[in-house]
Amino acid sequence: MSGGDIKLVASDDGLNAAGGTDASGTTGGRDGMFEEGRPSSSNGSITISGGTISVIANGDGLDANGTLEIKGGYAIVCGPTQGDTATLDYDSAGTISGGTFIGTGASGMVQSFSSSDQGVIMLRVDKQPAGTTIKLSDSEGNILLTHTPDLEYEVVILSSPDLSSGQSYTVTAGSLSQEVTAD
Q1: DSSP reduced 3-state for 102
Q2: Which residues are within 8 A (CB) of 38 and not within 5 positions of it... i.e. 6 or more apart?
């Protein structure tokens, strides 16, 4: 994806580079991972380099089954709410080198980015109800990101060119307020 304004609401995976239907968001079949008792593999990839994408998913939010790369744009992933699915799901690598990413979801199978050229924050926030606003502030109290997810969530993943690895930030989700250091 290199541009445009995309809004997806999915009963299973939001974006799935492997194709097909795996029902991971509804029946616990973790992304078709086991077929006749054997693990499956994929070299599918998702690359986001521009535009705005908003995903609300009951299954995996972004499911690359290979590599996931965010190089630009603005991506918001809301969901999943069950433990056998994840906001980000990749097998090989999940990288972010530009753009803004705001992700929320369940904590059971959580993955963050495996490498980044900008700061990344992943934080478990207990179970927060749908509509609980997330705010990210710098050390001087300036709000850098804010988002109000449409689904309940237990994990927040944030990345932006405004975040620097090793710097401290404050994440607020409902009554929870915690200082964290960006990776």
Answers
A1: strand
A2: none
Phi-psi map region of 4: left, alpha, beta (phi>0 left; psi -120 to 50 alpha)? left
What pTM was estimated for this model as a whole? 0.87
Residues 97-152 have pLDDT tens digits of 999 999 999 998 899 999 999 999 999 998 999 999 999 999 999 999 999 999 99
Q: What Cα–Cα distance (Å) separates residue 181 from each residue in 59, 66, 137, 168? A: 29, 28, 12, 4
Per-residue model confidence as pLDDT tens digits over 44-86: 899 999 999 999 999 999 999 889 999 999 999 998 988 788 9
Spatial distance between the Cα atoms of 81 and 100, rounded to a whole number of angstroms: 22
CB 71 within 8 A of CB 45: no
Task: Round to whole Å and give the CA distance between 173 and 4.
Answer: 29
Alpha helices in 66-123 (DSSP H): none
Buried b (16+ CB within 10 A) or exposed e, 139-173: eeeeebbebebebbbbbbbbbbeebeeeeebbbbb
